[in-house]
Amino acid sequence: MSATQSRPEPKQDEVYSALASARRPKPPGRLSMCLTFGWRGMLKIKHVPEQLIDVTLTPVLFLLMFTYLFGGALAGSTSEYLQYLLPGMLVQSVLFTSVYSGVALNADSTKGVIDRFRSMPVWRPAPLAGAVLGDSVRYLVAAVVVVVLGLIMGFDPGSVTGVVAAIALIVVFSFALSWIFTTVGLLLRAPQAVMNAGFMGLFPLIFLSNIFVDPATLPGWLEAFVHVNPVSHLTTATRGLMGDGASAWEIGRVLLEAAALAAIFAPLTVRLYRKAS
Amino acid sequence: MSAQLAIEAVGLVKTFGATRAVDGVDLAVPRGAVYGVLGPNGAGKTTTIRMLATLLRPDAGSAKVLGRDVVAQADEVRSLVSLTGQLASVDEDLTGRENLVLLARLLGFTRADAKARADELLEAFGLADAAGRQVKNFSGGMRRRLDIAASIVVTPELMFLDEPTTGLDPRSRNQVWDIVRALVAQGTTVLLCTQYLDEADQLAERIAVIDRGRVIAEGTPAQLKASVGQGALHVRLLDADRRDEAEQLLARALDAQVHLEPDPARLTVPVTDAGRATGAIAELSAAGIELADFALGQPSLDEVFLALTGHPAEETVDEEEAA
């Protein structure tokens, strides 16, 4: 932990001139502030690439395991099951990734850096919006990994535009969902607790959806839940976009749910962030 | 009068649950100097700073920083002050340079100007060699310097410094002190929270002593020290059996109450003047009482507290120093 061999010293005269030469530029716009925080998110990925290992390895394992282990039993053949499963895997991978927004925010708030931002003339929601923006990159990485692996395994993607539209829809939904986790991130004490709470909350939503099996095979009460689960709606729309096409209602429903999530949890996060001590 | 003051706080209160962390703090901090807020851990220093820096909303009372209300004009306050918190307020995952560029960009510097400003500060603070390293690999002193550099990307009119040298080695501590002096020389007002009397004495023009959420004394370092005595004479005898004799002699020579330490060979006497202390030592040896050693010490924070409050500074101070 010691300083370098050259034992660098602050230079008093240079400190003076650095103080004297500081002038205050015009404050940047809100969008520019958000983008700067987005850049910070990128830098964190660059310096802590381990966080991408979770994001990339987990979907790979899930996709391989489910396709080859359950494919034959569930759909008659692994290739047929892959066709059914892959859009859902895409949804699952990206949704899990959104938990990290909360984890990162919690890590920030337990360190001193959030105090620095809050004591500066910075638009209050900018650090949050910027961080979530940076997370979108993680979503894209997770999505691309799943799609590429799926193609290698023999998935027939329909059209390129369909795949792009599906990924875009999932990223938009995750962006909205991540506000839940940022809220949780500000309420809990430790990053690990946020991670646990996030995954505990997501597991039932993801497994009790139409990602893995056709809901028609489920008991009635469970089927009813699966039909109202927003994750099912997102999966249905994704499947449609990557296959026979999705109706405007199927897509619009997902966007509405995303808007509702963001409308509730984004202001809640900002409120908590403002009050955080 | 208020236009002349950098900080004017009246009756600030902040409660956390049942604890009144800050219990009616009044401050009048003049512009252009270091103002020390001295107190042990848990006295309410950090909470006070956080209210003044607009991070916490006071439960009662009001405060103006550079003439702006910390609640109603929080944004204006933020554009005039900088905070260097007790926890390093930099991003440990990023490099030193990235931290400064990030802050410069947030303050409105163009990309090129932000880089130039970051490099200028890194060079001035002796961090140029480490600029490309992640902050988590910095030493404590380097981290502190980066933290202060981060606070002067734009020279603030007022800077809050919360325990800037806690945990630093003496060398790094002196470097931080030099930087604080440079800041003040450039016209910045500094509000310095510290638990070291020595630090407040070195830097501050005035000091407020705070305990259990209240200001219990205020004045120049000289006034404060005068109120608790200049320091103490610590004596260790060669022969513990003669302590009673030494006690009487010292009490008479220094006209003060002698404190008997737990160690049976040790005594401590408050002294107001070093000349009389040397005289007393001479009297001891004239009486044939031999000394193992003796020392004339500055009053410690503990002694200030004992004198001002009748109770010692909290134990946590020692833990903090040991850590």
Helix content of chain B: 25-40%
**CATH class category name of the largest domain in chain B:** Alpha Beta
Largest interface: A-B, 46 and 63 residues
Largest sheet of chain B: 6 strands, mixed
Number of helices of chain B: 12
Please tell me the total number of domains of chain A: 1
Identify the overall geometry of chain B: elongated
Estimated radius of gyration of chain A: 22 Å
Q: Fill in the CATH topology of the largest domain in chain B.
A: Rossmann fold
Shape of chain A: elongated
Q: Which percent range describes the beta-strand content of chain A?
A: under 5%
Helix content of chain A: over 70%
Number of domains of chain B: 2
Straight-line distance between termini of chain A: 30 Å
- The ordered H/E elements of chain B are EEEHEEHEHHHEHEHEEHEHEEHEHH
* Class by SSE composition of chain B: alpha/beta
Order of helices and strands of chain A: HHHHHHHHHHH
Oligomerization category of the chains in this entry: heterodimer
Written overview of the protein:
The complex is a heterodimer of chains A (277) and B (323). Chain A has 277 residues and is mainly α. Chain A has one domain. Chain A is 77% helix and 0% strand. Chain A is elongated and about 75 Å long. Chain B folds into two domains: 2-226, P-loop containing nucleotide triphosphate hydrolases (Rossmann fold), CATH 3.40.50; 230-298, Alpha-Beta Plaits (2-Layer Sandwich). Chain B is built from twelve helices and 14 strands. Chain B has helices at 45-52, 74-78, 96-106, 111-124, 140-151, 170-185, 197-203, 221-228, 243-254, 274-286, 301-309, 316-322; strands at residues 5-16, 19-30, 34-38, 60-65, 68-69, 81-84, 158-162, 189-194, 206-211, 214-219, 231-237, 259-260, 266-271, 291-297. In chain B, strands 6-7-8-3-9-10 form a six-stranded mixed beta sheet, sandwiched between helices. In chain B, strands 2-1-4-5 form a four-stranded antiparallel beta sheet. In chain B, α8 crosses α11. Chain B is elongated and about 75 Å long. Mean pLDDT of chain B is 87; it is low at 315-323. At the A-B interface, α1, α2 and α5 of A face β6, α3, α4, α5 and α6 of B.
